[in-house]
Amino acid sequence: MYSALTALTRIVRRNVLSLASASGVGLQGPRTGPLCDSGTRRAGLLLVTNHAVLPRYCSESTKSRGVVQGPVYTAPYFGAPIEQVQSLSLDEIKQALRAYGGLVRPTDNQEVLCKRLLSLTRRRRAQCIHGVVVSNAPQKTVVVAARRLRYEPKIKTYRFVTRRFMAHDEEDRCLLGDKVTIRLCRPLSRRKRFVVVENFGSSERRRQEAATAAAAARRTEESTVGLATLPSETTDSPRSTASAASRPIMP
Description:
Blueprint: H1 2-23, E1 26-28, H2 38-43, E2 46-48, E3 73-74, H3 82-86, H4 90-99, H5 110-121, E4 128-135, E5 141-152, E6 157-168, E7 179-184, E8 192-199, H6 203-229, H7 238-246
Parallel strand pairs: 6-8
Antiparallel strand pairs: 1-2, 3-8, 4-5, 4-7, 5-6, 7-8
Helix pairs in contact: 4-5
């Protein structure tokens, strides 16, 4: 049975390689690319055009997870080009470093601070964790629960393992249930070693924001219609002038 499966896997791999070489499509490892079909995953290969690695929460790769919109909040210059970060002034670099919990010494010059900001704004998958906010009680601090699959060799099966991380939220905008991305940073306290770099919100939060926007638009429309229906006070008609002249003057 094992030899038959090995032979089938080799055949599928050979066919995938031939198709990829014919169509000019790049190949990546089984854990570094977006989702693919079950046959290609069994073969141990992923077809990725132009070697592009898509982020975890985006409309192209995670429609099955229900997250199809962009982030609500993103840390300053996170994932920005290197030239854009290098063109910042000293005050802008210091302000951006505060959002990442970066260290700012009075003796550091602009070149040192720019290198520190560049290291924090790079999107490194080994230092980023995706999870859900389960607590936002502390000031500028959230607790993020991250769930992953773990193989148990004793019972030969997989099970979900949940870990909690404390992360720094400079803007203090995270709500319960928000899907966030946290990144490793310098130790900020005894238990806080991460900072929130992306906040994708939640379905409940998006519904509330949509309802608030619709109510504001409705109030604006009603006020506009009400102003249009009011009589004009600047232009007086002859009838109103005559009636005002014939009205007796009260002592």
